[in-house]
Amino acid sequence: MNDGKANAPAHAPAMIELRGLTKDYGHGRGVFDLTLEVPEGQVCGFLGANGAGKTVTMRTLMGFIRAGRGSARIAGLDCYRDRARIQRDVGYLPGEVACPAGMTGWEFLRFMARLKGLRGETTMRALIDRFELDPSARIGRMSKGTKQKVALVCAFMGRPRVLLLDEPTSGFDPLIQERFVDLVREERERGATVLLSSHIFPEVERTCDRVAFVRAGRLAGVESMDEVRGARRRVYGIVFADAGECARYRAAHMRSPHVVAAVRGDAEARAADGGAVRVGSSGPGLRAGAHGTSGVGLEATVVGDVGGFIADLAGYRVVDLTTREQTLEETFLHIYDGATAGRTAGHAGRANGKETRR
Amino acid sequence: MNPTLLLHDLRRILPMWTALTAVTAAYIAVVVAMYDPRANEGLDALVATMPELFAAFGMDGASATLSGFMVDYLYGFLLVLLPMVMVVAAVHGTLIRPIETGSMAYLLASPHSRRTIAGSALASVVASSAAMAVAVSVTEAVCVAVRAPGDVALADIAAMNLGLLALWLSMAGVCALSACAIGNASAALWTGAGLCAAQFLIRMLAQADDGMDVLRCATALTLFDPEGLAAGEGPAVCGAVALAVAGAAMCVAAVEVFRRRDLSL
């Protein structure tokens, strides 16, 4: 596992710099001892489940809230003390879009352009065209996606040096998400530094150079996107012909010490959510963790040779096989396997912001 | 203060300002039209039937002049209450609601200090109050000119309404301070509005019963003495200045609190 500093390329100065950032809201909420550097010109994903501390970090970087301990700096300036000065170079897309409902999109964008001291509307209009935005309606009557487009145009129209994007595509359809990805790539080419907070893996995967994982308010690690891609696995949902066949598969893949450890971990998960029981499996050419919610079906997480997994599966009576991408949580657990996974396996079942501090 | 922000905030206040100013002007016209020295005996008889109730609203029925009549029937009640609603709504629209809805995030994401942002919001509240005072003065001057030309000097109207503006500024200060100091939007709104309303209610109690006269010391409204201002009396002028200074001090404190507070937007 790497910390934020260790992963920062030595040749580029840090544009965004968090050092021991702590903001404690009690009951494990907030961020704790967060250290991260984003060099100039880099797009850094900031990943974590809901409630992991992403938005708190963004707000601290924007100077909305004061760090309890540690520091947050952009371009060497303190984010709280020098917040007005920093805003000249920052474009911000809040997680919750709350543009004034009584204004039309045009009124809001022109108001913000005046407020930011922007001259001309060339970039604004180009972004409006690009995202097929109709800014003539009142914002209060716009759909969530359209409001998100207004906020996005507002964040990008000043061509800032730093972009802080808090879950930027949550309201977009796939086509607009695609255009957003292209836009972020262009901004990177232009030299902008981007911190993109998200819990949507594909969005981060296609835009970011590096990715920082935050969990329960603490930085779990920073990896290059290539490393994350390499560690990512697929999850297969297997439905067997009957419960006996399912039990046979389960028993056959519970023989290794690795599997036993997985079962222990997941016993905690079941206690937490009352749902899934996982079993682990291991065999030639594959390593799999599986969990099922009924007597005839289970899910297997496969790494390495998928052919080996399928060949192994051919020995069983299978009636259905589906596949899905690993969730961020699962990817995270695999990347930080071993000691970290052992500590956090109990949390894995408590998805969607129900995490507790380690 | 930033002109773009100021105009933006003034636009927010304008619809409600227009409605309340129109209602206030209509009331002024009706009250001035009701003034008839020959019918004063009848009005006094009416007041005598429920003296405590009328006194609570500052109407003692003893006004022999149009100036006194206006003080009794306008400055004791309508010109305090209606502008108070305007001030509370203006502070709500420019400070409390943007924080509550999160739209304040966009203002804070601009290269302007919090002092500028909050200062512009409060400047819009002060400007709308001043505009209302001007509208009240003009309406009164026109109504007096039509109903009883020469009965009330323009200087007297101006003096009374300057004092009135000082009273409104003190209310704006209370509302602004509660808006900036209290994190919960509803609590911020009702604390400010409640404190202003409480001042008014305390004065009503003090006026309704001589035994509760001591309550005059518990309300800032006591510092507002329109008759004294019209007469140019020193204590009345000092009271108005004290209200204005208190309002300004609370606005400055509100800006400082806003500058330092965490805003989870």
Automatic annotation (TrEMBL), chain A:
Pfam families: ABC_tran. It comes from the Bacteria. CDD domains: ABC_DR_subfamily_A. GO terms for molecular function: ATP binding. Residues 16-241 form the ABC transporter domain. Keywords: ATP-binding, Nucleotide-binding, Transport. Belongs to the ABC transporter superfamily. This is ABC transporter ATP-binding protein. It comes from Bifidobacterium phasiani.
From TrEMBL, chain B:
The chain crosses the membrane at residues 12-35, 73-96, 117-138, 158-180, 187-206, 234-258. This is ABC transporter permease. Keywords: Membrane, Transmembrane, Transmembrane helix. The lineage of its organism: Bacteria, Bacillati, Actinomycetota, Actinomycetes, Bifidobacteriales.
